Amino acid sequence: MDYIANKASLLEEILKIDEEIMRLKTDTKYLKIRRNLKKLENVGFGNPVIIVSSPDDLDVEVRMQRRSKEMKDFINRYRERQQAYDERIDQLYSQKRDLEEKLFG
Fold first, then answer.
1. Residue 104 and residue 10 in contact, taking contact as beta carbons nearer than 8 Å
2. How far are the Cα atoms of 24, 40, 50, 96 from residue 18, in angstroms, in the given order?
3. Does the pTM of the predicted model rise above 0.90?
4. Per-domain boundaries in the chain
5. Which of the following CATH numbers is that of domain 2-104: 1.10.150, 3.40.50, 1.10.287, 2.60.40?
6. Which residues pair with 61 in a beta bridge?
7. 20 to 30 A Cα–Cα from 42, which one of 77, 90, 99, 105?
8. pLDDT tens-digit map of 26-82
9. What is the DSSP string of the chain?
């Protein structure tokens, strides 16, 4: 019976980790960070001024010149913020994989 309880607790922990991963992946801040980073990295031709949210306060929009130092700084700051989310998600996937090995391995 203890064996079954242990398996059940492992499965419960895996489900909690799955929920946390989904919560992080659908977090509005994370999605805004990804969208703004993509917008900055994929600047093409057209209007020389781009409008994006500030990496420090996503509710504040900032106008800047395309390919300016300010834009490069924003890209770096957005990458840092996205990397923090991605590292946490990767850590959760690793924990989940370890638990799955214990459960099924």
1. no
2. 10, 30, 37, 8
3. no
4. 2-104
5. 1.10.287
6. 53
7. 90
8. 999 999 999 999 999 988 777 789 999 999 999 999 999 988 999 999 999 999 999
9. -HHHHHHHHHHHHHHHHHHHHHHHHT-HHHHHHHHHHHHHHT--SS-SEEEEE-SS-TTSEEEEETT-HHHHHHHHHHHHHHHHHHHHHHHHHHHHHHHHHHHH-
